Amino acid sequence: MLTKKDLEEGQIRIYIITIIISILIGLNWEKSHLFENLIDIVIGVLLYSMFCQIPFLEIKAAFKNRSFFKALLLGNFVFIPLFVWLLLLLFPGTPVITLGVALVLLTPCIDYVIVFAHLGQANSNAILASTPVLLLVQMICLPLYLWIFLGQESLHIIDVTPFLTSFIYMIILPLLLAVTTQLLAKRNFGGGSTLLDFSGWLPVPLMALTFFTVIVSQIDTVRQHAAILFSILPIYILFSAIAPFIGKFTARLFKVDVRSARAVSFSISTRNSLVVLPLALALPAPESTLVAMVIVTQTIVEILFELIYIKCIPALIKPNPKN
After folding, report:
1. Tens digits of per-residue pLDDT, 23-66?
2. CA distance 81 to 149
3. Using CA atoms, how far apart are residues 292 and 97, in angstroms rounded to an integer?
């Protein structure tokens, strides 16, 4: 009989099979782009199922972890911008391509990184507690970074609406529903216990569904711009390969505990592609298509690396045997 443990232990195989199926369908079905409308909904339900597993009384303790927040902010908003600046110097592109790369790599993820951090034995409570801070700081810093990287003409694309909308529908609403479910379960009212238990089965299949909706809806757009794809792949691969080490280094500077250090590494390595994508789509054509493709390519590369992070970040950041 299938158990939750079976799902968790077999999740990598499930994700790899899902990715292969997604690519095949996305490249061969002309209406696959329609799945784009489901991305936010699927991630919202995924986060609800994840939040249901978090004991929210522990969240208060996460806010007291000052060393974690210092490492998180320094890594995401000082070290990563410097790293992105270096990558863009090494791999220069057109202003449109540079805009897409900067948009996606300068903004830390505030949604599914929580799930990956949990799967990677990191402090997902701390990540959850940090989401309002990360959202606010990236909204403030992104215009400054784009001005530095691209000049004043880039500032007109910044609109806080996609950030706030994403935060409300993909963080606040699932969070409130999860807290309500836990309260109902605690009081044994309205089937809350049954719903809470059922939610424990959902993270792995819903993560697979997230992969499916993102890849199947976007892979054909990536294929249509194959030349641009190959010009930006080195940037994304180098970023994904090196970012976890930047996270480890930053966490070590502030002597962050092991699980929180893993959380820093996950945050620094995972970008906010699904939130900045609306910024790209708001641009005039044909720039909107090109910038969106640049962002989506990063999402696909990141998804593949997240499967590696789940196993490698716990191995990279291990408890000190002397402690």
Report:
1. 999 999 888 888 888 887 888 888 788 778 776 655 666 677 88
2. 10
3. 10
The two tokens of residue 133 are 């801070």
CB atoms within 10 A of CB 30: 7
How sure is the predictor about 108, in pLDDT bands with cuts at 50, 70 and 90? very high
| Half-sphere exposure (Cβ direction) of 272: Cα atoms closer than 13 Å | 26
Residue 66, C-beta contacts closer than 8 angstroms, at least 6 positions apart: none
Specify the pTM.
0.80
The count of residues in the chain is 323
User: Are 250 and 79 within 8 A, CB to CB?
Assistant: yes
Amino acid at 99: L
Sign, CA torsion 112/208/10/29: negative
The DSSP string of 184-236 is HHHTT-TTHHHHHHHHTTSHHHHHHHHHHHHHHHHHHHHHHTHHHHHHHHHHH
Q: What is the DSSP letter of 282?
A: T
Is residue 178 a contact partner of residue 270, using CB atoms and an 8 Å limit?
A: no
**Structural contact between residues 267 and 129, judged by C-beta atoms closer than 8 angstroms:** no
Residue carrying structure tokens 């996606």:
104
DSSP letter assigned to residue 77: I
Backbone angles phi, psi at 187, to 5 degrees: -95, 0
Distance CA 256, CA 65 (A): 9
3-state secondary structure 125-137: HHHHHHHHHHHHH
For the chain, how big is the Rg over CA atoms in Å?
19
CA distance 217 to 23: 9
8 A C-beta contact, residue 317 and residue 248: yes
